Structure formats: C-alpha cells, structure tokens
Amino acid sequence: MSTDEAPTKGRVAKRQAILEATRAVLAHTGYAGTSIDSIAHQAQVSTRTIYNHFGSKDDLVNQVLVESTTTVADALTELIDQHLDRIRGTADLEDALVDLGCDWVRLQDRYADHFSLVRRLDAAGEQLPADVYAAWHATGPERAQATLARHLRLLRSEGLLSFADPERAASHYIYLALGEALAEARRGGVEAEPTAIAALVRAGVHAFLHGHLPRPSAP
C-alpha cells in the first residue's frame, strides 16, 4: 500500500462510520433529537471530523436518506420490472400484480433498518427541512411510483387496463394492494403470517382491478 492510499482509506472509513452513526441516531431519536454531538459520540469521532466531511447536519441527514433510499428504490425498480415485464395477457395480470405486492412487502424485512428510519422520520416529516424531505421522496417513493406508472401505462396501451392517469393508477395500486399488507407486516413481521400477507395483497389487487379493468363497450 502506498503512503497516499492509507490516509484515503482512513478518510473513507471515517465517513462511513459517520453515515452509519447518523442512521442509527436518526432511527432512535428522530430528526429533531439528532445533533452533531450525538452523531460524533455514536461514531467515536470529533465534531470537527464530521464538519470536515459534511457541511452541516442537514447535509449529513440528506446524504444518509438519499443513500439508503436509493438502495431500496433500486431493489423496488428491479422487482417492478421483473414482475410486470412478464405479463403477456389478461391471464398473467392478477398473479403478476399479487406477486409484485408480496415481494414489495417482503422488502420490509430485507431493509428493516431503512424502513425503521423512514417510519420514524415520516411520522415527523414536517420537522425535516423542505429540501431534505423533497430529496428523500424524489429518490425513493416518487421514483418507485413513477416506475410503476410507466409499466401500468404500457399495460393500458396493450388493452389490459383502463384509467386516465397512470400516476393516479400507480397510487391506487400502492394503497389498495399494499396498504393493509404493509400495516400487518409492520405489526407482526413479514415472515410471521406469509399466507395472511398474500391474502391481503390479493384482496387489494382484486379491488384495484375492479376499478381499472377495461369495461365492455355498450352495444
């Protein structure tokens, strides 16, 4: 290892320790209760070290949220593509939407630390600076909904679904297919009752399709 590489590796390690400490403190105390001092204590670094890496608390929180949310959004985008790209006709539609919903819910366990943080911050979203809140939502929830809307638009063009606004249809799917299932998963864990989770997702998909399947033309 060259003499130039050692300081660089040390700096990267400290930066990662600061990010992990920030994530832990945010999940425990929320945005308002998080301070540079508490992050420094958790990361076992000085406050000066934190300011050398990040300009402010808001810059640091924004970086943590964007990095964490991007990872989950990447996984969600992959799931949406995987399940909805396989639809070839009406016979595939319901099962693909149900399978997507079940896998979407399972991400709660796969990224438990992220969703614990999100629930804590979402409950007090008004405390986050507007630009931090906007960056978080644009990177995660809005990106996932936009990906879903793009697929639903394609399904509409193939005559498999009917709606005026793809973004609104994506929102309907998220609330109907995922709402109860996500709430149940948060209460008892996704793996506790997978059959019950699947039943909730399927019931929500039925409601979604009831509103968005094409209607026969009047004679």
Automatic annotation (TrEMBL):
SUPFAM superfamilies: Homeodomain-like. Keywords: DNA-binding, Transcription, Transcription regulation. Signal peptide: none annotated. InterPro entries: DNA-bd_HTH_TetR-type_CS, Homeodomain-like_sf, HTH-type_TetR-like_transc_reg, HTH_TetR, TetR_C_Proteobacteria. Residues 12-72 form the HTH tetR-type domain. Pfam families: TetR_C_7, TetR_N. One of its GO terms (molecular function) is DNA-binding transcription factor activity. It comes from the Bacteria. One of its GO terms (biological process) is negative regulation of DNA-templated transcription. The keyword Cell cycle does not apply. Residues 35-54 bind DNA. Transmembrane segments: none annotated. This is TetR/AcrR family transcriptional regulator.
